[in-house]
Design brief:
Layout lengths: L1 E7 L6 H15 L2 E7 L8 H4 L5 E2 L6 E3 L2 E3 L2 H13 L4 E4 L5 H11 L3 E5 L12 H16 L2 E4 L2 H8 L8 E3 L6 H5 L9 E6 L8 H12 L7 E4 L5 H10 L6 E5 L3 H8 L2 E6 L8 H8 L3 E5 L2 H6 L6 E4 L4 H13 L7 H6 L2 H17 L2
Parallel strand pairs: 1-2, 1-6, 2-3, 6-7, 7-8, 8-9, 10-11, 10-13, 11-12, 13-14, 14-15
Antiparallel strand pairs: 4-5
Length: 368
């Protein structure tokens, strides 16, 4: 049995966490056990891992930030050694950029192999030339170049990182995946009272305030338009203020964090997935929405465009063009019909993901 420690900065049950949650039983069948190391402060959304018997740890691993990166003082090493004795780790796997420098340090201190999975592209830190931006990029570069393998959630993500010119040891493309239950829940008939579904964190990258403005634009043509927003995050207050400012109180409902069955139920009652993201990876939320038969209005992020070329029922719109987004929403809602997409089910099958990733874990551990 290989024990993989997934390091995350906080457990928010976004696409990364859902992918890991869905993969647990299949990984166990392949001889892989998970440990979650949450080095942030959010402890509320990890029950789906804990219910599957995965240890979700919230360690205070002490470290210092010095001129040339992270270091770990003796008492931090002692704490990390205690954690490793109680929950032995064979490999460290980092996902969010906020956790990668710390995950790299943990791997070095324990002498364990290290994998990074990068999920997004064209993120602000890649071009931020402030003093902090350059330093943060330096920390991430060290973490990426330390990794034994960098896996990318899609081909567009790989191409984006290759353009940065970093000395990555090896790239692998392993696309995201979703569970059979998502595809099996497709409902070709029935009422769909929600015109728009937004699914994900209320964060800057999701362009949430702009999304509310685009819904207000669509409301000019469809006065009774209804939008369901599932997820939570640090922009909730700004989104609530935008809803009030735009007079959308009767049009937009913020559901907050929802369990998997609730997400399925609402998706099955929705018509159009809307994601005017400023930057995005291969969006698991988009895959899940398409699996439920929704059409989609998404941004022109290269990951969307390159991941779903020619997909019927999808529109790719500039995430800064308010009128174009409003128009696309109206046209997509008015022309909506549920679509079964078997070609995407085959592509994003959870067994394909776990087969490739478990093989990589075994390869990297064997070669340590």
């Amino acid at each position: 049995m290989i024990r993989v420690a997934h390091v995350v900065p906080s457990y928010v049950s976004g696409g990364i966490e859902r992918l890991l949650e869905n993969s647990v039983p299949y990984m166990r069948d392949s001889g892989i056990e998970y440990i979650m190391l949450n080095v942030g402060i959010d402890r509320d959304a990890a029950y789906l891992m804990e219910d599957q018997g995965v240890p979700v740890l919230h360690p205070t691993i002490y470290w210092s930030l010095k001129r040339y990166g992270f270091t770990m003082p003796p008492f931090g090493r002692t704490k990390l050694a205690e954690i490793n004795r109680e929950h032995p780790m064979d490999l460290i796997h980092a996902h969010h950029h906020g956790s990668m420098p710390m995950a790299s340090l943990i791997a070095k201190e324990l002498g364990k192999p290290f994998i990074i999975t990068t999920h997004n592209l064209d993120e602000p830190w890649q071009t931020d030339n402030t003093l902090w931006g350059r330093y943060y990029r330096f920390l991430l570069k060290r973490a990426y170049e330390h990794a034994d393998v960098v896996t990318c959630i899609g081909q567009a993500v790989k191409e984006n990182f290759q353009s940065m010119g970093w000395k990555i040891k090896e790239y692998r493309v392993i696309e995201t995946a979703t569970h059979d239950s998502i595809w099996d829940a497709f409902r070709p008939e029935g009422d769909r009272p929600w015109d728009i579904l937004m699914l994900g964190r209320l964060a800057h990258q999701k362009n949430m305030v702009f999304a509310m403005e685009a819904i207000a634009e669509a409301k000019k043509t469809i006065p009774g338009i209804k939008a369901a927003v599932l997820g939570d995050g640090n922009l909730r207050g700004e989104v609530e203020a935008a809803i009030k400012r735009l007079g959308l109180e009767d049009n937009v409902k913020l559901f907050g964090q929802q369990g998997p069955q609730d997400v399925l139920n609402i998706a099955n009652e929705s018509k159009v997935f809307f994601a005017p993201s400023l930057h995005e990876g291969l969006s698991l939320a988009c895959v899940e929405a398409l699996a439920q038969g929704l059409d989609a209005v998404v941004s022109t992020s290269p990951s969307f465009v390159k991941s779903f070329p020619g997909e019927i029922g999808m529109s790719f719109i500039d995430p800064h063009d308010l009128a174009a987004n409003g128009k696309a929403l109206v046209e997509t809602i008015q022309n909506f019909k549920p679509r079964l997409r078997p070609h995407l089910r085959e592509r994003f099958d959870i067994r394909t993901y776990t087969g490739k990733m478990s093989a990589l874990y075994k390869e990297v551990v064997a070669g340590k």
